[in-house]
Amino acid sequence: MFLKQKKIFVDIFIVLCSLSFVFVAHAQDLKDAFGNANTVAVSGGYDTGVSAESMIAKIISVVLSILGVIFLILMIYGGYIWMMARDNEQEVTRAKNLITAAVIGVVVIVLAYAISFFVIQNVTKDVFKNDSSWEESEPDLNL
């Protein structure tokens, strides 16, 4: 009887987990939903306005999203190991170490992103500030 309830619980858990990864279409992202429309627009003479900064930002966003999913999977796996350990202290220690490593990993990733974002914002603000001394001017020939 206990095995049947456990199987039903695991099946429901798997179905809920698979349904929780449904992606939502945001209105501002629909311009990217058409695949090669960007290439067609460029060949037709329209500027798409995609800059290197926006491409790098999208890549970083995707990588951070994947790392977040990996963190979630590790947390669920560590919790599952801990729940199934029963009285086995080695398994409990293994689960605690896995959860601790996952949390430390996500903290390191978030701190690295925050520090690099802060440094890049301050460096670009200082280097590319709108200062008249950087602009080219006509030389004064009336001496």
TrEMBL record:
Q: List, alphabetically, the Pfam families matched.
A: T4SS_pilin (PF18895)
Q: Where is the signal peptide?
A: 1-27
**What's the domain of life for this entry?**
Bacteria
InterPro entries in UniProt: T4SS_pilin
Q: Where are the transmembrane segments?
A: 55-77, 98-120
The question of whether Signal is a record keyword is answered with yes
Q: Which UniProt keywords apply?
A: Membrane, Signal, Transmembrane, Transmembrane helix
What's this protein's name? TrbC/VIRB2 family protein
